[in-house]
Amino acid sequence: MTEKTHNKILILRNLNDAGCSSTMAETFLQLQTKQLLSLLASRRSILLRRVHTNQTRLDCLGHLIYRLKNELAE
User: Would the pTM of this model clear 0.90, i.e. be above it?
Assistant: First the structure.
């Protein structure tokens, strides 16, 4: 296996692990470096927004649990 083929496999595996579709991964392999960075930054931004949204939801649930436990203790 050539180094180029090996690198391609590693990139595809990494993209798959990051939740990218096979279509997005194939598109990724056809883009130039500047375009790649833009695509990856966009994907990262989407995932980060999801993390923040879910963190807010977790915080709300945590606060509710805290309040209910305090009510039970009274």
Answer: no
